[in-house]
UniProtKB/TrEMBL annotation:
<dbReference type="InterPro" id="IPR032423">
    <property type="entry name" value="AAA_assoc_2"/>
</dbReference>
<dbReference type="InterPro" id="IPR051314">
    <property type="entry name" value="AAA_ATPase_RarA/MGS1/WRNIP1"/>
</dbReference>
<dbReference type="GO" id="GO:0003677">
    <property type="term" value="F:DNA binding"/>
</dbReference>
<dbReference type="GO" id="GO:0016887">
    <property type="term" value="F:ATP hydrolysis activity"/>
</dbReference>
<dbReference type="InterPro" id="IPR003593">
    <property type="entry name" value="AAA+_ATPase"/>
</dbReference>
<dbReference type="Pfam" id="PF00004">
    <property type="entry name" value="AAA"/>
</dbReference>
<dbReference type="GO" id="GO:0008047">
    <property type="term" value="F:enzyme activator activity"/>
</dbReference>
<dbReference type="InterPro" id="IPR003959">
    <property type="entry name" value="ATPase_AAA_core"/>
</dbReference>
<dbReference type="GO" id="GO:0017116">
    <property type="term" value="F:single-stranded DNA helicase activity"/>
</dbReference>
<dbReference type="Pfam" id="PF16193">
    <property type="entry name" value="AAA_assoc_2"/>
</dbReference>
<comment type="similarity">
    <text>Belongs to the AAA ATPase family. RarA/MGS1/WRNIP1 subfamily.</text>
</comment>
<feature type="domain" description="AAA+ ATPase">
    <location>
        <begin position="39"/>
        <end position="151"/>
    </location>
</feature>
<dbReference type="Pfam" id="PF12002">
    <property type="entry name" value="MgsA_C"/>
</dbReference>
<dbReference type="GO" id="GO:0005524">
    <property type="term" value="F:ATP binding"/>
</dbReference>
<dbReference type="GO" id="GO:0000731">
    <property type="term" value="P:DNA synthesis involved in DNA repair"/>
</dbReference>
<keyword id="KW-0067">ATP-binding</keyword>
<dbReference type="InterPro" id="IPR021886">
    <property type="entry name" value="MgsA_C"/>
</dbReference>
Length: 427
């Protein structure tokens, strides 16, 4: 006899039973208001696994008494969609939960669109992928997008206690005693994934024989063996990965050593050395740059050492680099300078290369006037001579605006201004 998992049995029947996501379903919030007014619109629920996307959909259906159907965009066919649409035509509004909506192909999408506009089908799409990146604009324009978040520990505790006490859908008929440290492990190891926590709890309860007192005593070791610890880092091609590397760079840019080490630890835990190496190289030259060029060089050496060592030892040079970059003075003047030059170029400001700078190594160049008036700087005192290098049309352009956040760029700024003055240019 097939028995549904505990997480399935404990799904909320009304919007009031939803645990977490109070920014959407709490009293006065948008989904709560939709349900109260029975003015539902199609939506996409986006967030990590086990955070309540399906629960919210079933709770909406339970609160409004509309028919509720579930399909998977990847595995169910266009014919399956047609059956749901025919049901809506015959019996009224149907709420359709479409899991993995980011995998909806064009044929299914084209079939669905007119039915969404008519309001017969209320689509609730569920996805772990960023809909602004992975879902077709035609679907996005007909839905509201709501992000759901991993559940907090106190929210997880409410759901777990409810499951332990419910005698009909939960484990209330079993004489379960769970130690405090075991419950804490259950609530934290799954990183906000309630489905994993509930199913792990059920596995622990049903695989542990009663003790002499007739109780099912769940200890920390039992919970550790029954619940798979969920990684803090998503798949390297997923949205969570990009969020992590973004937070990593922004923490270093903001000079927060502890935050940067935290995000480095997440990436190390995922074993993603290529992403760490690439991101640290970018950070060194984009965010520290001319304020501390030796730190950039040492970062590259640390990356090379980590690549030779591999994990776990590779974490050591990486930590050195991250701490130094965090504590270093910062300057983004180099990236701002090249971006300014590229921007002017894209706007059509470039002009002709001055004749005296053109290639003069071939026979006949002198007849064209190429290179004939070029002044070789090493023939002059201090190996410098005043002459024009930019095209005449943009000869007064300035792209580099030095900062004074470290001794290196402060010195560069002084030299840069002296050279501009000698050229007769204004800053």
């Amino acid at each position: 006899m097939h028995v549904e998992p505990l997480a399935y049995r404990m799904r909320p029947r009304t919007i009031e039973e939803v645990v977490g996501q109070q920014h959407l379903v709490g009293p006065g919030k948008i989904i709560w208001r939709m349900v109260q007014a029975k003015m539902l619109s199609s939506m996409i629920l986006y967030g990590p696994p086990g955070t309540g996307k399906t629960s919210i959909a079933s709770a909406i259906a339970g609160s409004t008494k509309y028919a509720f159907r579930t399909l998977n965009a990847a595995t169910d066919t266009k014919k399956d969609l047609q059956i749901v649409v025919e049901e809506a035509k015959m019996s009224g509004t149907v709420i359709l939960l479409l899991d993995e909506i980011h995998r909806l192909d064009k044929a299914k999408q084209d079939f669905l669109l007119p039915h969404l506009e008519s309001g017969k089908i209320i689509l609730i799409g569920a996805t772990t992928e960023n809909p602004y990146i992975n879902i077709n604009p035609a679907i996005r324009s007909r839905t509201q997008i709501f992000e759901v978040h991993p559940l907090k520990t106190n929210e997880m505790r409410v759901a777990v206690e409810r499951a332990l006490q419910d005698p009909e859908r939960g484990l209330g008929k079993l004489p379960i005693q769970i130690d405090d440290d075991a419950e804490t492990q259950l609530l934290t190891a799954t990183n906000g994934d309630l489905r994993s926590a509930l199913n792990g709890l059920e596995l622990a309860a049903k695989s542990t024989p009663p003790n002499d007192a007739g109780q099912i005593h769940l200890t920390l070791p039992i919970i550790e063996e029954s619940v798979q610890k969920r990684s803090l880092v998503a798949d390297k091609n997923g949205d969570g990965h990009y969020d992590t590397v973004s937070a990593f760079q922004k923490s270093i840019r903001g000079s927060d050593v502890d935050a940067a080490l935290h995000y480095l630890a997440r990436l190390i835990e995922a074993g993603d050395l290529p992403s760490i190496a690439r991101r640290l190289s970018v950070i060194a030259y984009e965010d520290v740059g001319l304020a501390n060029p030796p730190a950039c060089e040492r970062t590259i050496l640390a990356i090379q050492a980590a690549e030779r060592l591999g994990f776990p030892e590779g974490r050591i040079p990486l930590a050195n680099a991250v701490i130094e970059l965090c504590l270093s003075p910062k300057s983004n003047s180099a990236i701002m300078a090249i971006d300014a030059a590229l921007s002017r170029l894209h706007q059509g400001h470039y002009g002709r290369i001055p004749d005296h700078l053109k290639d003069a190594h071939y026979q006949g160049a002198a007849k064209l006037g190429h290179g004939t008036d070029y002044k070789y700087p090493h023939d002059y005192p201090e190996d410098w001579v005043r002459q024009q290098y930019l095209p005449t049309a943009i000869k007064d352009d300035q792209y580099y605006h030095p900062k004074h956040n470290g001794r290196f760029e402060t010195a560069y700024a002084k030299q840069y201004q002296a050279l501009r003055n000698a050229q007769g240019k204004q800053s």
